[in-house]
């Protein structure tokens, strides 16, 4: 499916600034479709001037559509749809008298020329870029209510603004979060900022903010400011938005209700005639966001406590080790202390990060430092890391920290027990896997060493974690030039 930009570049003469105007128009024209209860199609003249291409389409969320199929990419010749040609040639909004029945339902057609504000350059010629075709499915039309009349009047004001180059609002910041839509709640203000119409949803939102009086006739800026009165300095944005003077958004809170406001000033024929204010109650949304934040904090606290508990366990084991007379027993306990310690390091790091992700370089460096501490003083082992682990998820980080601890310990205890040497941790990370090579230039593996036959605890832990937990591969080989090289390869499961 080609994008708006693809189609425009391939078929039309629009330049970059024109395209930007088009993008900002279609990012905001849901409003026009909803207020009109109509489908919108954006037609741009073909480069050779002999026809039109549809580069965007919008359906109303407030009424039935006319076009059940996609029309984007459709090309029509000049003369095929007179209403489009006329709006373009005469630079004015055109409307058909009688409904068109050609699609089987009655459709009222209207066309709006699209003008770009401030075309720049020396020429003050207005620049027109295309035509919006607005098609209303009349099959379900009834005698219009007050709401419908207000919508239609507002739609016609907006259409006029499109033709005058005043909508979309140039220079307005792109709206990132979903801003309120017509169906969420709508107010219409007059020039003085007084409410002339309030949709039922908009009125409900103000009731929840604490309004007891009538909204129609009230000055929205003052009314809103009074409802949201607090000791904090007045939210200046609030006054600007609620008075409808500038195209902006804000959020107000009162009585536990949070409401989003979006102002659309109506400027027609050179003068400000009033404004639309869209209103959305976002209380539930904000409550859920807050909940998520506390959940984050809780997870961090849990990691913190796990770390503390592990440190207590390590301290208890150390105490017991000191009391033991049997050297092997004591060594075994001291090793257990180190194993617990390396898990504690991971939990400590996790307790500082909001997500379940950790910068593993930090952890690796601490585990490496821990290993050199246990090496015999005469060995003078200088461990170092090459390459970067980067950020890892905690499901990988915890077992990997254990694995590293065991491998480094082996290098220091067996390979480099009685001689100075080098100890290297080399990391290769790509998009879908992580390879870690721990190598020492020490004594090398004992004669006839077989990883699969090895029953000692250290390598069994390593194998269980690498193969079982991380679905990775493990190999231990003599290093070229003497010593030992252990390779751990872990695939990253798709996130
Ligand atoms: N880097 C190394 N250099 C030399 N020999 C090694 C190296 N790594 C492992 N080995 C050999 O492999 C054996 C098994 O290691 P493993 O870690 O499983 O047990 P361990 O270190 O003896 O005891 P522990 O259970 O306390 O770790 C070691 O006893 C040692 O002989
Ligand atoms: Mg070991």
Structure description:
This protein has 495 residues and is α+β, with helices and mostly antiparallel strands. Helix content is 39%, strand content 24%. It contains 13 helices and 18 strands. Strands 3-2-1-6-5-4 form a six-stranded antiparallel sheet, sandwiched between helices. Strands 8-7-11-10-9 form a five-stranded antiparallel sheet, with helices on both faces. It has a five-stranded mixed sheet with strand order 13-15-16-18-17, covered by helices on one side. Strand 9 (249-254) and strand 10 (257-268) form a beta hairpin. It is elongated and about 100 Å long. It starts with a helix and ends with a strand. The mean pLDDT is 88. The protein binds adenosine-5'-triphosphate and magnesium ion. Adenosine-5'-triphosphate binds at residues 335, 406, 410-411, 413-415, 440, 442-446, 454, 456-459, 484.
Give me the secondary-structure topology.
Blueprint: H1 4-11, H2 16-28, H3 30-36, E1 39-45, E2 51-58, E3 75-77, H4 82-90, E4 94-95, E5 107-116, E6 127-137, H5 146-163, E7 186-189, E8 195-198, H6 200-208, H7 220-227, H8 236-242, E9 249-254, E10 257-268, E11 271-281, H9 283-323, H10 327-350, E12 357-359, H11 360-374, E13 382-386, E14 391-393, H12 394-415, E15 422-429, E16 433-440, H13 457-469, E17 473-478, E18 484-491
Parallel strand pairs: 13-15
Antiparallel strand pairs: 1-2, 1-6, 2-3, 4-5, 5-6, 7-8, 7-11, 9-10, 10-11, 12-14, 15-16, 16-18, 17-18
Q: What small molecules does the structure contain? A: adenosine-5'-triphosphate, magnesium ion
**Mean pLDDT rating:** 88
Determine Rg (CA atoms, Å).
35 Å
Structural class: alpha+beta
Q: What shape does the CA trace take?
A: elongated
Q: What is the number of E strands?
A: 18
- Low-confidence sequence ranges: none
Cα end-to-end separation = 27 Å
- Order of strands, widest sheet: 3-2-1-6-5-4
Beta-strand percentage? 15-25%
Count of alpha/pi helices: 13
How much helical structure, as a percent, in the residues? 25-40%
Instruction: Report on the biggest sheet.
Output: 6 strands, antiparallel
């Amino acid at each position: 499916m080609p994008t708006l930009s693809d189609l425009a570049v391939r078929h039309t003469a629009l330049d970059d600034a024109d395209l930007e105007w088009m993008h900002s128009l279609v990012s905001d024209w849901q409003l026009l479709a909803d207020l009109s209860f109509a489908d919108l199609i954006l037609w741009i003249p073909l480069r050779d001037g002999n026809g039109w291409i549809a580069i965007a389409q919008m359906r109303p969320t407030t009424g039935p559509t006319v076009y059940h199929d996609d029309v984007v990419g459709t090309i029509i010749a000049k003369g095929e749809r007179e209403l489009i040609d006329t709006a373009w040639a005469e630079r004015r909004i055109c409307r058909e008298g009688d409904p068109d029945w050609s699609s089987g339902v009655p459709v009222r057609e209207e066309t709006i020329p699209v003008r770009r504000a401030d075309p720049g350059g020396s020429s003050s010629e207005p620049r027109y870029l295309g035509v919006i075709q607005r098609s209303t499915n009349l099959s379900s039309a009834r005698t219009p209510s007050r709401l419908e009349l207000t919508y239609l009047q507002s739609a016609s004001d907006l259409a006029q603004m499109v033709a005058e180059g005043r909508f979309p609002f140039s220079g307005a910041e792109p709206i990132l979060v979903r801003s309120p839509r017509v169906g969420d709640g709508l107010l219409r203000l007059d020039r003085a900022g007084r409410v002339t119409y309030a949709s039922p949803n908009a009125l409900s939102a103000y009731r929840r903010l604490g309004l007891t009086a009538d909204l129609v006739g009230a000055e929205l800026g003052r009314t809103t400011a009074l409802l949201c009165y607090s000791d904090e300095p007045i939210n200046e944005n609030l006054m600007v938005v609620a008075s409808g003077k500038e195209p902006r958004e804000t959020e107000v809170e009162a009585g536990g209700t949070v409401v989003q406001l979006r102002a659309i000033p109506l400027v027609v024929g050179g003068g400000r005639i009033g404004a639309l204010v869209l209103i959305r109650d976002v209380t539930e949304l904000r409550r859920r966001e807050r909940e998520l934040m506390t959940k984050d904090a809780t997870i961090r606290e849990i990691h913190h406590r796990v770390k503390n508990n592990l440190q207590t366990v390590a301290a208890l084991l150390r105490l017991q080790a000191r009391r033991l007379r049997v050297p092997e027993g004591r060594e075994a306990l001291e090793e257990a202390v180190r194993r617990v310690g390396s898990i504690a390091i991971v939990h400590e790091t996790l307790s500082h990060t909001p997500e379940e992700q950790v910068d593993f370089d930090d952890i690796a460096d601490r585990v490496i430092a821990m290993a050199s501490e246990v090496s015999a003083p005469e060995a003078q082992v200088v461990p170092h890391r090459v390459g970067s682990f980067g950020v890892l998820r905690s499901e990988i980080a915890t077992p990997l920290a254990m694995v590293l601890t065991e491998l480094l310990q082996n290098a220091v205890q067996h390979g480099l027990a009685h001689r100075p040497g080098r100890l290297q941790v080399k990391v290769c990370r790509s998009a879908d896997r992580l390879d870690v090579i721990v190598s020492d230039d020490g004594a090398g593996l004992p004669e006839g060493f077989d990883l699969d036959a090895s029953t000692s605890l250290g390598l069994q832990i390593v194998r269980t974690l690498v193969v079982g937990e991380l679905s990775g591969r493990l190999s231990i080989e003599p290093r070229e030039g003497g010593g030992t090289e252990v390779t751990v390869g872990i695939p990253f499961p798709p996130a």
